[in-house]
Each structure stands twice: as C-alpha cells, then as structure tokens.
Amino acid sequence: MGMFTSGAKLYLSSRNRRVDNFRKNPIDLQKKVLKKLLLFSKKTSYGIKYSFNNLINYKDFSESVPIVNYEEFYPEIKKILSGEENVLWPEKIKWFAKSSGTTNDKSKFIPVSQTALNQGHYKAGIDMLSIYLSNYNSSNLFDGKSLVLGGSKQINPIGNAERLFTGDISAVLLKNLPFWARLFRTPSLDVAMMPEWENKLKKMALITSKQNITNISGVPTWTIVLIKEILKITKSQNILEVWPNLELFIHGAVSFKPYKDLFKEFIPSNKMRYLETYNASEGFIGIQDKKISKGLLLMLDYGIFYEFIPMKKYIKGILKAIPLRDVKLNINYALVISTNGGLWRYLIGDVIRFTTLSPFRIKIIGRTGSFLNAFGEELVVENTDSALLAACKKYNASIKDYTVSPIYIDANSGGHQWFIEFTKQPKNIQLFKEELDNKLKELNSDYEAKRTKNLVLGLPEIIHIQNNEFYAWLKQNNRLGGQYKVPRLSNDRKIANEILALL
C-alpha cells in the first residue's frame, strides 16, 4: 500500500460517522435542512415573495411555495443572469451549470452557489471515496491518477456587472476544484476544459496513455470512446495493458446495465470495481454504498430538501408532493428539490424509485419527459434497459447506444422503432427482436396489454445504426462532451426523423 493511499484512508475513515448519521436519523435531518434553507433565504426576493419568515413547518412550506419546472422558474434565474443579486439565494452567484436536457433543445442555466459546491458536490466526493475505501480496504486508489472525463467551460456574456461563467456541471466542478483534489486528477485543466470535444479526446488519450491511472470518472458512452482511442494509439488489446493498476470506474447519468459486458471486454479483470453515483447539475443526490448495488444511498445533508410526486399523479398533471417520511417502496416518483443553490420546489426532471427505506436508497428510473406513452404503454427507461440487456445476454450481443420512438399507423395504433448501435450484432435479429418484445411484456403490464393480438402495438422494429449516426446526431445538436447522451425514449418522432436523415 502506498503512502498516499494510507494517509487518505486514515482521513476518510472519520467521514463514515457522518454518513451513518443520516442513515439513522433521516427524517430529523431533512427537517433541519429545510429549516436552515428557509432561514438563510428569508431576505431574498423569492423568500420575501413567499413569506419564508412565516413558514414554520413542511405543511406551511408545501402550501405556500409552488412546485415549478425550469420554464416556470426561469424568470427568477433571468434576474440573476441580468446582474440582480439576492434573488433566490443570499450569495453572489457567478457560476451556472448549463444543460440542454434530454427533451428540450433550449439550454438551461442552473445557478451554482459556492455553498452548493462546498457543502454538496465536494463533500460528496469525499464521502464517495470514504464509502469506497470502507468497502474495499485493500484499495491502492491514491497511488495513481484519477482520470476525469469532464465537459467544457465558456464565459457567458450575459450580465450587467461582473461576467458570469457557464459550463456543464463537470466543468464548473473542475474549475472550482480544491487544491488537494487537483493533486490526484488528470489531465491538466487546460486540456480538461478544451471546448472542442474531438480534439480534447485525442489529447486526453495521448496524455493519459502514459500515466498510471487507477480510476476513471465519466459517462459510460464517452468513456468507451476514449478507451477505444487509447487502444488505437497504443495498439493494445485491452486497457489493462495500458493501465495495469486500474481498479475503479465511477459512473452516472445513464444506466450502466447495457454497457457492463462491453466494459468487461475492455477491462478483463475480476478485480475491477464499478461505483454508481447520482450527480446532477442541480446537486449531488446519491452514492452507491454497498458492493452489490441495492440502490443509491440518498445523501441527506448536502443542503438539499427532497420531495416526491407519484408518477401516476404527475402524468395526470397533479403536482402534489410528499416528504421523505411518506414515501413507499416500488412506486415511481418525480423528484422535487429545494437547494442551497437557490432552487425552490424544483422539478429536476428525474424519476426515481425507492429500493430500501432503512436507510433510504433510490434507483433512477428515467426522466419525467423520457418515457413512451404514445399508446398508453407507459414504458420507462428501466424497462427498455432491462429488456435490451436480457436480449443481448440470450443472443450474445452487446450495444453501444440506443433510442426508441413511436411509429404511428393511425391515431390509436402503431409500434416502437428502436435505433440500436451494436458493438456485437446478434446473429438472428428476428429472434433478438422477439426476445426484446417478450421481456418488455414481462416487465410492463401496460405494454403487454397493448401488444395483445397486435391491436394497438405491433412487434418492435429495429434499425441497426452502423456508421456512427448517433455521434453525428450529437455533433449536429451541439451535444458532444462528457455529460451528453442520446435520449433513450421519446413520445414523438423528432429524434427518430433526425437520425433517419443521417442514415
């Protein structure tokens, strides 16, 4: 064991006590978080507007402050972008996490306070390492470098006073990274922050192929692209020939299920470990705390107050949320958060489900706008990921990416069109398609009902993406980079038609 790893373990072991605290006292802790948020923000213009000073408990809060999506909340954010201060949070906001989302082409600007960085994202980074080292005591993680696939930053000309800065959340985090964290990461910030993704990728490959990388953080799809580039320039068979001490891949943003087999091909080691996190532009929300994932531990003391809307109500337009104490297992919820970045009862756009209630662990199911319900089938990403994985296992296939859109025969009937980029194509696509269909029937009773006798839904159609059309689509829509991904499910034909035009 190296000197750095030994020292890190000694320091990080103390952090586990704080994590244990919100495992044991989640409800009381969330009450304290809400009280602190309201107290701190009572003199902001938003706090004055909704009388934060008079809100005594959750009931008062939920009855007085509206639940909002980005479009409804944007007038408040626009004030900050225009130079106004003390609007949502009583700190000078200089940074905004820029996100295009998955269902809307319009960019979103999420305010990021210094408190949110220090008490949320960076604290989560320490907790993540603490949890990992407690599960894997023999780790030599800090004896090498951490490779981070981040995004890019740019100066936003919007603003009447000082210039405001924007970038995807990974770029904002890298730019403001504490000095101690910079000691272990690679590549240098000038490379990591390059705005042009394709050139950045090549530079990252050249630099990191000569370093001792022990862990990688990034979205699976873009990590695969980087690994392929490194294997190409080093003429290696697998990445362990380049990085023999690689032991950990930290991932999030998309389900890892479809990529698991592909990563095993690139990293053929039983000692390789995978850690899932839930780090959004709006805040750091969850960390996998068990070796075998039982869901992500909901992080309750990062200055985020959580609420949940049952999806059955959300789909009907009923925006009535419940607090953490009232949640149940096996129900899909739209996630609502209030944060120390100045978001108030904000619909983050994610759908989650609780896997355990003691402690509170969650599973990301999909996006509120990313489900297929064109014919009443109510498919979510969890369904399509699981069905695709089952079909791949049965017919010895693997995929790089996919998206699904409806096909309309008439107003009441049609089917699903699957665009799939295989890294290993099944020998019999018809049998693969039938297995995919059968698995979806098993997983989703609404889908099964709509497939009865082909009256509403026909057998899925599969279009094989063979010439990097997904990459071309991302580039065409200015979505190249670490955090961007192809939307999985759509209720309209926009993405499907754009991809078909590239074939």
What does this structure look like?
The chain has 503 residues and is α/β, with parallel strands linked by helices. Among the domains are: 140 residues, 3-Layer(aba) Sandwich (Rossmann fold); 130 residues, GMP Synthetase, Chain A, domain 3 (2-Layer Sandwich), CATH 3.30.300.30. The chain contains 19 helices and 21 strands. Strands 6-3-7-8-9-10-11-16-15-14-12-13 form a 12-stranded mixed sheet. Strands 2-1-5-4 form a 4-stranded mixed sheet. Strands 19-20-21 form a 3-stranded mixed sheet, with helices on one face. α11 crosses α12, α15 crosses α16 and α16 packs across α17. The N and C termini lie far apart (52 Å).
